[in-house]
Each structure stands twice: as C-alpha cells, then as structure tokens.
C-alpha cells in the first residue's frame, strides 16, 4: 500500500542561513528528509535543527532510543547529542531512517511518547 505523508504542522519560515542553500533547495531537503529530531518538539521530522538542549533525560541510553525507534522501521544512523566537555548526553538525538515513510511513521507513532519518565 502506497501512501503520501503530508505533515499537518504548518511549514516553518525558518531557514538555517549557515546551510548557504537557496530557500527552494532548503525546503526540498526538508521535504525529502529521512531524519527524525528527538528533543524539544519530540519527535519532529527534520533535515537539520540546531538546538543545544532537548527534553530527553540525560540518563536515556542510546539502546533505549534504538529499541523504541526501530519498531517504526530500519534505522540507518542514531546520533546522540553530547556535551563537548563532559561527553555526557545533553537531551536530544537524531534518528535517521532508510526511508521517509519510516521516519514519518515514527513521528506519527511516537509523538507524545515518554522516555525514562520518573
């Protein structure tokens, strides 16, 4: 069954100027992204998002995130945000899938999910 994912969220007018991409190319990359940002707006389908903090617990293990997100599809890469001085997790990560459909499914399925809720 084929389906087209269309986000119900309004498109942001934010453009990362450091990318040095024209607005059309930047939007095209966003529209074809297979990366999920897990942090303040957890999870959020995104190409690149610069954000120093998130809402993951610093005690959340990479294995926990991998286990939960792998239920939505095959994971290509998982990148944990780390403090550059202490090398400890700082509350966000990126999960990259092989397909956009899997990334969209993760966003739909895991929005409002809680990790390590105390």
Describe this structure as you would to a colleague.
This protein is α+β, with helices and mostly antiparallel strands and 118 residues long. 24% of the residues lie in helices and 19% in strands. The chain contains three helices and four strands. The chain has helices spanning 23-31, 62-69, 100-110, and strands at 35-38, 44-45, 75-82, 89-97. Strand 3 and strand 4 form a beta hairpin. Residues 1-5 and 42-53 have low confidence and may be disordered.
Which features would summarize this protein structure in a list?
118 residues, alpha+beta, 4-stranded antiparallel beta sheet, 3 helices, 4 strands, 24% helix, globular, disordered N terminus
Please sum up the structure shown.
The chain has 118 residues and is of the alpha+beta class. The protein has helices spanning 23-31, 62-69, 100-110, and strands spanning 35-38, 44-45, 75-82, 89-97.
